[in-house]
Amino acid sequence: MPKPVYNRILLKLSGEALQGKYNYGIDFDMLDYIAEEITDISKANIDIAIVIGGGNIIRGDFASRSGVDRVSGDYMGMLSTVINAMALQSFLEKKNLATRLLSAIEIKEVAEPYIKRRAVRHLEKKRIVLFASGTGNPYFSTDTAAALRAIEIKADVILKATKVDGIYTADPLLVPTATKIKHISFMDVLQKKLRIMDYTAISLCMENKMPIIVFDINQKGNIKKIVYGKIIGSSIGEN
After folding, report:
1. Tens digits of residue pLDDT in 64-102
2. How far apart, in whole angstroms, are the C-alpha atoms of residue 155 and residue 49?
3. CB atoms < 10 A from the CB of 231, how many?
4. Rounded (5°) CA angle 209-228-196
5. Which residue ranges form the domains of the chain, and what is each CATH number?
6. 230 vs 44: CA distance, rounded Å
7. Distance between CA 3 and CA 5 in Å, rounded?
8. Could you give the 3-state DSSP secondary structure of residue 82?
C-alpha cells in the first residue's frame, strides 16, 4: 500500500469555497463534500491542520470601503472565520473525526485559545485542528495566518484550495488565453505580482522554505492525490 509523502499538512480553505452554488453564506452540501474529502485523507494517518477564511460572510477590507472602521471590519472578518470553522468542525465530527477548534481571539464558549504547543499536541494525537480568527490581528489576511500557522506547527506543506486547477498567468475565468504555470518560485510570484496569496504570506513562506501547492478543491480526490505524491495543480517553492 502506498505511503503518504507528507506527515503534516496545512489545508487553506477560503470562505468562498464554502459558498458552493450560492453567492453568499454557506452551502451545506459543499461543506459536507469538503468534510468527506478531509475524512478521506484522515485515513492516511497524517496530521491535518486547517485555516479557513471568512469571505463568504464578510471581508474586512470590503467592510472598511463601505464605511466601517478598518480595524472593526477586520475583526468582523475574523469572527466570520469562527462561524465557518464551527460549521466545518460540526460536519467533520458527524463523520466521527476527532477535531479541535483553536481561535486567535479568545471565545472560550466555542473554541480553545490558540497556543502553539497545544495545537501541536492535538496534531500528535491525530486530532484535526482548525485554526480560526486569522492571526488575531487586523490588517493580516487568513493567507498570512495559514503561512504563520504552517511555520509554527512545522507543517510539510500548505495546500491552498481554490476554484481553479492551479496558477495561471492571468485569471482563467476572465482571460481564456491564460496559460497554466506548473511550478513557480516565491520570488517570481512576488516579482510578477501574482495574486495567489497575499505578499506577506508568500514572503513568510519564502523566508521559511514552506512549499505551497495550489489546487482545485472542486475536483473530488485532489487532496488525497496530493497527499500520496501525485502532481496536482501548481507548486510554489524556492526555485
Report:
1. 788 899 999 999 999 999 999 999 999 999 999 999 999
2. 9
3. 11
4. 45
5. 8-237 (3.40.1160.10)
6. 14
7. 6
8. helix
